[in-house]
Design goal:
The protein is an all-alpha fold and 236 residues long. It has 13 helices and no strands. Helix 9 packs across helix 10.
Length: 236
């Protein structure tokens, strides 16, 4: 087993510790949404715990907007060796996200060269871009962010492979689907099982085609696959 994979697996326990209370939190969130609806959207009528939980759910996904801005910063300065057809397809993805739509998975895979060894690979990302990406994945370390993000991506890939080994998304119970989508950046509250299956399958299609040099693509998937998801938009 390679050293980087061993280090990632050692980090697995810490990562899962941060999500072990997901089921309780989801129940709380459903209760909060019902109470908020009953109170006509008046946060003053909610208890402190309910308000805190609404804020907590937004903490990761709020960084997507800044990440999208960072991705767009490169659109006028792509390396000359990049085919114009590739750049054109990538700009379509960015325009789709800005326009309120989700890009097609195959479109994203067609542009994975942008993430390794392209301008969006982990080694090429600027400090502020790295910070927002780390926050999206609940990584608070101020040092070694690239290493921590690489480990997080490997953990996600290992989890994705485990899903496939255990029979695929369709064999997962509802709670497991909700937790898996939550970890990967989709708010599962009030989302049908059918859509959770669809969304997680979309993620797996990308994950199974990502190589070690393209880990940055998987780390950006919460943005690429979830930016305009209705359940995520409801958090803001």
């Amino acid at each position: 087993m390679s050293r980087i994979r061993l280090a990632a697996l050692q980090t697995y326990g810490i990562f899962m510790e941060g999500t072990k209370n997901f089921y309780v939190d989801t129940k709380d969130y459903i209760k909060i949404r019902r109470n908020l609806k009953a109170s006509s959207g008046d946060f003053k009528k909610l208890i402190r715990r309910e308000i805190e939980f609404n804020d907590y759910l937004r903490q990761r996904l709020k960084h997507n907007k800044s990440l999208l801005k960072h991705l767009r910063r490169f659109q006028c300065s792509f390396p000359e060796q990049y085919p114009q057809s590739l750049i054109k397809e990538w700009l379509k993805i960015l325009d789709s996200l800005r326009g309120g739509n989700q890009p097609d998975v195959q479109q994203i895979l067609d542009c994975k060269l942008m993430f390794g060894p392209g301008p969006y690979c982990l080694l090429c990302l600027e400090g502020d871009h790295l910070w927002h990406l780390a926050q999206l994945h609940s990584i608070s370390l101020s040092l070694a962010r690239r290493k921590s993000l690489a480990r997080r991506a490997i953990i996600l890939m290992e989890m994705d492979q485990a899903i496939l080994r255990e029979g695929g998304v369709h064999n997962m119970p509802m709670k497991a689907l909700q937790k898996s989508c939550y970890i990967r950046g989709l708010n599962p509250a009030f989302v049908t099982k059918e859509h959770l299956i669809f969304w997680l399958n979309q993620w797996l299609k990308i994950s199974t085609h990502v190589q070690a040099k393209e880990l940055s693509l998987l780390l950006h998937c919460p943005l690429l696959l979830g930016y305009n998801e209705p359940s995520n938009l409801r958090l803001f």
